[in-house]
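Backbone Fold Data
Goal — fold tokens
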Amino acid sequence: MSADATPVPTVTHAPQRQQQPLPSAGAGERRAEQRDPFLDNAKYLAILLVAAGHAWEPLRDGSRTVTALYMLVYAFHMPLFAVVSGYFSRGFEAEPRRIGRLLTGVAVPYVVFEVAYTLFTRWTSEDPDRPVSLLDPLYLTWFLAALFIWRLTSPVWRLVRWPLPLALAVAMLATLSPSIGDDLGLQRVLQFLPYFVLGLLLRPEHFRLVRRRAARVLAVPVVLCALAVAYWAVAWMNYAWFFHSESAEELAAPAWYGPVMTLAAFGCSVVLVACFLAWVPARRTWFTALGAGTLAGFLLHGFVAQAAKYWDWYEPAWIRRPVGEITVTLVAAAVMTALCAPSVQRVFHRVMRGAVHPLVQGRRMSSAGFVQVLRRAFVRVRRQEG
């Protein structure tokens, strides 16, 4: 966002039965009446922001307005994915059945799309020899790697007395540690961790609080003020802090900036997430069903975003005028909507199931066996890189 993943990134009324993250990785397993339309609506609207953010990237230079919108969206859209993913992970236990679903629903898409994005990048960039690296997430796949790690650790966070302060401390320390490196996107894993842990702590009544009329009314001036601050901050602030992908040293900032910006960004992001949720409709709408397809939309739209740069779709001068910027935004929303359609979801899940079968060599392989297969695959790739 999840990518990008989130990078990246479904819900029922029974939290202990919820197995899939945002974006949803197994929505077809549940009947429509079991789903919460509020969070399905939130997932679809949030994934539109992911598409818009990627569409705006080439338009930032020379447009203060686009950059301000970009900064505002990146301040909360991936934190939102992490929060809702944590909410859906409240009932996760380290038992074979659930670990097996985590492997097939998150690990397999990670492997498939890491390879696919690498091959696509070889074709569309000046790096035709880029190696396939399952340990260095490319583009949007970082969110799947993060989600896999977060969900595996979710039982541990339920045992900790003060989980959110501890997660914030971990994120703050990560900004002081440039030596963490890029393996599995650990900087993002650790810096986005507090949002996931916050989601683990949420209950349905917390979502009802932001859906009250008073919250909806208050959200309007808050978002307008945030947009004004973003517009003012474009000239001097490094919005890469909202990417949570680098340490303070890598952002050419004093070390103490890292912990301070972690806390400041967390407060800002949580407020904006609440404002966003306040305006999400709670009833079923025409786009509610699309909320089940956010994983497919998240992973597939990256190819479109990369192709747009490769084929110079941003070169015409009119694209960088207001009418062009609006057109780009609408096209991005339309493409994402199409990629979240039920028909695309069905094809996507069939392809993922097809990818699982050769890996597990049969439907009855245990979760432990599947882990061993994936481990051997990682070792083989690592040897090739060496």
